[in-house]
Each structure stands twice: as structure tokens, then as C-alpha cells.
């Protein structure tokens, strides 16, 4: 077999092994990501609930602040 034929054959073998290796790696990575899907969903749901809780607390604090501000304003106007 001539040298160019050997080089071409070697290149084909290396390319084929590279493609097979990449596909295997890609499948393993995809499978792992699919397994992590439910975990990410639960984390996302927990963050959403936490954000809603913070939003409700912020609304309550805003209402208390506005009531206190109105009381102080009414007190200052009565003192004039």
C-alpha cells in the first residue's frame, strides 16, 4: 500500500473515531441533562414561591408605610 493511501486510511479512521466519540459524549450529556430536568423544575418552582412570598411581604410593608405616612401627615395638619 502506498504512503498516501495509508495516510488517507489513517485520516478516515481518526475522523470516524472522533465522530463516534463525539456522538457518545453528546448522548451521555443529553441523558444527564434530561435526568436533571425534574430537579431544575423543582428548584424553579421553589424560587417562584419564594419570589411570590417576598412580593406579598413587600406589598404589606408598603401598605403599613403608607398608613403611617398618612397618620403623620394628618397629625401635622391637626397641629397647625
UniProtKB/TrEMBL annotation:
The keyword Mitochondrion applies. Keywords: Membrane, Mitochondrion, Transit peptide, Transmembrane, Transmembrane helix. It comes from the Eukaryota. The lineage of its organism: Eukaryota, Metazoa, Chordata, Cephalochordata, Leptocardii. Belongs to the PET117 family. The keyword Translocase does not apply. The chain crosses the membrane at residues 6-25. GO terms for biological process: mitochondrial respiratory chain complex IV assembly. It is found in: Mitochondrion. Its main location: mitochondrion. It comes from Branchiostoma belcheri (Amphioxus). GO terms for cellular component: mitochondrion. This is Protein PET117 homolog, mitochondrial-like. Pfam families: PET117 (PF15786). InterPro entries: Pet117 (IPR031568).
Amino acid at each position: 500500500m502506498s504512503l498516501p493511501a495509508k495516510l488517507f486510511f489513517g485520516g478516515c479512521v481518526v475522523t470516524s473515531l472522533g465522530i463516534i466519540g463525539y456522538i457518545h459524549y453528546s448522548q451521555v450529556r443529553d441523558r444527564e441533562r434530561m435526568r436533571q430536568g425534574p430537579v431544575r423544575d423543582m428548584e424553579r418552582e421553589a424560587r417562584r414561591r419564594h419570589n411570590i412570598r417576598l412580593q406579598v411581604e413587600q406589598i404589606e410593608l408598603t401598605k403599613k408605610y403608607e398608613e403611617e405616612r398618612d397618620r403623620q401627615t394628618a397629625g401635622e395638619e391637626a397641629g397647625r
